[in-house]
What we know:
By secondary structure, the chain is α+β, with helices and mostly antiparallel strands. The chain has helices at residues 2-18, 21-35, 119-122, 125-140; strands at residues 42-57, 60-75, 93-101, 109-118.
Amino acid sequence: MRLPLALCLGLVALAAASQSPLQRRVVKEVLEYFHSRSNVQHIFKEQAVEGAVEREDPSGTFIQLRVSLVQTACRKRGPQRHNCRTVENRRKPTCLACYKFDGGDVPKVLDKYQNCGPSHHLAVKEIKQRDEAECRAVEEAGKSMDTLYLPGMYAFSKGLPA
Length: 162
């Protein structure tokens, strides 16, 4: 029993070591977002980070990743303990996070999108399409709009005769 747990913890530590500082920041913010929800009663830990995408362009850095969480035995409202053991056969939600950071020395969040739910819930076609559209919009944040005209960007009205 201890060997599989040690292997799992080793894999999580290895995955955390291979993440960029911005990816670690996104994972931390996803956990804060998830724990801020009123229906969450227990503390959850990061189990795995999957599908990490990090792209840079002149407007900044875009990060997209899926974070698998696992429930612990510690309650959210109780004393904060760092050695909470995970509970088997409990909720294992997945969070999709898309963040766009500017290119500064201390990167600021230009835009973000987070969606957490049961892993089978995020696989539903409609939700998946919405997630993809929201992430595309986040990736476009901060890009120059000088040369692009979008409908509704300007409004003109004709006044009534005096």
